Amino acid sequence: MTPENLQKTDLDMVGEYARFDDDPNAVPADRPPRRETVTVAAVGGGFTGLLLGAELRKLGIEDFRIIDRAGDFGGTWYWNRYPGVRCDTESYVYLPLLEETGYMPTEKYATGPEIFEHCKRIADRFRLYDNALLSTEVTQLTWQPATSRWLIETHRGDRIEARFVVLGTGIWGRPQLPGIPGLETFEGNSFHTSRWDYAYTGGAGNGKLDKLADKRVGVIGTGSTAVQIVPRVAEWANELFVFQRTPACVDVRANRDTDPEWFAALPRGWQRDRIRNFTTVLAGGKADTDLVMDCWTDVKKIAAGWLERNPGMSVAEAAELADFEKMDTIRDRVERTVGDPAVAEALKPWYRRYCKRPTFNDEYLPAYNRPNVHLVDSPDGVERITPAGVVVDGEEYPLDCLVFASGFELPNFTHASRTGFETAGVGGILLSKRWAQGMQSMFGMHVNGFPNLFHVGVSPQGIATASVTHMLYEYIEHITHLVQHATAHGIAEIEPTREAEAAWIRNCRALGTPLHSGEVDPGGAYVTDCLPEFVRAAIPAADPPDTDSAVAKAVAEHGRGPLGFFAFLAEWRAAGDYEGLDLRPESALGRP
Ligand code: NAP
User: Fold this and answer.
1) Which residue segments constitute the domains of the chain, with CATH numbers given?
2) Could you tell me which residues are beta bridge partners of residue 143?
3) How far is the CA of 221 from the centre of ligand 1 (A)?
4) Residues 201-252: pLDDT tens digits?
5) Cβ–Cβ < 8 Å for 398, 127
6) How far does residue 222's CA lie from ligand 1's centre (Å)?
7) Of all helices (H) and strands (E), which one includes residue 79?
8) Where would you tag: which of 39, 165, 265, 354 has the fewest CB atoms within 10 A of its CB?
């Protein structure tokens, strides 16, 4: 796949598709519009909003707002309530603030409902409901130079002025429908996985979908979400048709209950240590031990084994061989598990490990041995949708219900289409326009022309960690440090200079990226051959200058890997001169 293939073909949930985006979980209560001024506003009440709110509370900064279109905290865990939903990252490194809240996850891999409950626990513990505006959609952010504040407008008529705004809108915030012809003509029931229709299917959370007993259900997509849904629907539906374009890479889950004695004996500070260990192991760094020991981390051991047995071998070669060995194990597992050889063959992932986001499940493959489950495999995908069902390679599959496991808006498709609102910076320039040729930032957080605005987790000039929680801890520390510094020193505006932003991007390109692993050549065939979705996500949709530079941009993360990047940020803050940022005091802006 090349960047030219990345033109947007999916459908946004607006106009005739708007009903797919309705919140089935909340009935918003009426309230009068708010007019207020706060020091900090966060857009997004997922992990970013929760961690930011908790940190601000600890620092004694009380005047902040957390705004979310969802009816509660939780972000992705609020929306994604589909049957089987579970986190692929170990709960002890993924669930934030376990020590602070005193919570012990029940299993090594927590269910969605448990994570959602934990989000609400954090909100309760840090009194964040007092600061929340829920079921509230931001419609516009506008920089106001006269006051050096952002004006936040919402669909409820709120006008909130904030000195600083943190965008915690996430990567997978906007669900999208596949752009398949005829989608709107389907006469059965249909919905997106992040808006699961339990009224139609029966059940709740992971419960029994008993209303599907007489239904023919179709699932379009075989990503991480579909892999979790398929076993649950297979159990209850009369017939299940899974429409596959690319087979999933399904590794071992091996979930288990938490041992309360082990958990109780963990020393103070254990969670930060464990998170750092997980990041270190996955980044190919030096760690005395692998604390998590799961199928995210085991490929590193395979690579280490190759190096040990072959002293002259390069790290890149060992990684390549480990990748192949790992994928072969995964293909073997398909063959051993799925009874029908033709189905097994179609379910085998033929690509390298990171070409499609790895998944972990012990029930997905056995589901294909059930007589009511049918794999419909076509690399061309679904041809069209009719009033009665789905057509693949000329054959129509009649359905009562169609589930779109088709994923989410990728960050590369304009800021506005990903977040649902526009951001107008200095001189009225729109962020979507500023980023039309790809995201540009300093540290993945600061953008020239958009003072006092912090981005979290979307820019390729920042860093990605295998446990998103780690990245968020570090970013929130950075942001709250700057907010505190500005507040303490009468600084009205913080903005990266154009030169610093450009230099940072150049720096990222020159260093390349360890692409999560520390061993993949950023401009090499691994990336250009497959462009995994998390890299694809960062490639500008329109007119990339050329493949090399688009790829370079997409993979531009700090070359020292996540821990190096975080150490760099800490050093930069400690230096105290905030190189690259223009810090404008109130007095310099002619204000007393
Ligand atoms: P996804 O990974 O984007 O998968 C979408 C699926 O829909 C793919 O299989 C894709 O096929 C298919 N598709 C899209 N358009 C299609 C079309 N026109 N015809 C046929 N098939 C089409 O979405 P997702 O599974 O919802 O996962 C999104 C992200 O959520 C993941 O990357 C992951 O980070 C996160 N997630 C995490 C967990 C967790 O445990 N932490 C669980 C679930 C999801 P192709 O593969 O051929 O493109």
Assistant:
1) 3-10+176-253+327-404 (3.50.50.60), 35-174+411-496+560-589 (3.50.50.60)
2) 150
3) 6
4) 999 866 789 999 999 999 999 999 999 999 999 999 999 999 999 999 999 9
5) no
6) 6
7) helix 76-79
8) 265
Q: Answer yes or no: is the C-beta of 65 below 6 A from any ligand 1 atom.
A: no
CA quadruple 215, 221, 226, 227: dihedral positive or negative?
positive
* pLDDT digits 0-9 by tens, 359-369: 999 999 999 99
Q: Alpha helices, DSSP H only, in 512-559?
A: 525-530, 533-536, 547-554
d(CA 315, CA 287) in angstroms, rounded, equals 16
C-alpha 447 – ligand 1 centre gap (Å): 29
Over 80: is that where the pLDDT of 532 sits? no
- The atom of ligand 1 lying closest to the CA of 88 is 40
Structure tokens, 261: 């004695």
- Better-predicted residue by pLDDT, 426 or 589: 426
Q: What is the spatial distance between Cα 158 and Cα 152, in angstroms, rounded to a whole number?
A: 8
Instruction: Confirm if 44 and 454 have CB atoms less than 8 A apart.
Output: no
Q: Is the CB of 168 under 6 A from ligand 1?
A: no
Rounded distance between C-alpha atoms, residue 426 and residue 524, angstroms? 38
pTM to 2 decimal places: 0.91
The packing angle between helices 468-488 and 47-59, to 10°, is 40
Q: What is the pLDDT of residues 22-62, one digit of tens each?
A: 888 888 889 999 999 999 999 999 999 999 999 999 999 99
Q: In this structure, what token pair is assigned to residue 142?
A: 């506008």
